[in-house]
Design brief:
With 111 residues, the protein is an alpha+beta fold. It has helices spanning 19-32, 50-61, 75-81, 86-93; strands at 2-6, 14-15, 47-48, 65-69.
Length: 111
């Protein structure tokens, strides 16, 4: 069985956004020019859990994939092993226990 590690609870759904979508939104904002202070909210069409990601991997690979929940104590050593500084790795460790979602920050509840 293939495994996908996650520092997020396997069934916790969170908003996702693709880097291409971020780039397009930033490029458009730059082309639009200054308009005072503004907030551009970006999120995909649905919130996704690590279990959802594992199910997608399983479908593509044709093999079972299971989420392995990693302890928060492993965040800093894991991220520094990828080349991140300890300061940056600690920022990920210190993210809120409850990831921001459309519902938690007052956005529309996804259907």
């Amino acid at each position: 069985m293939q495994r996908v590690p996650s520092f997020i609870a396997a069934d916790r759904r969170i908003a996702q956004v693709g880097t291409v979508d971020i780039g397009r939104a930033v490029a458009q904002a730059l082309l639009d020019g200054p308009r005072g202070v503004r907030v551009i909210e970006l999120a995909g069409p649905s919130e996704v859990s690590p279990n959802d990601v594992a199910e997608t991997f399983a479908r593509i690979l044709g093999k079972p994939v299971k989420v392995i929940e990693a302890p928060l104590a492993a965040v800093v050593p894991t991220f520094t092993s990828f080349g991140a500084s300890e300061n940056i790795a600690a920022l990920y460790r210190d993210l809120p226990d409850e990831p921001l979602t459309r519902v938690s920050w007052g956005g529309a509840n996804p259907a």
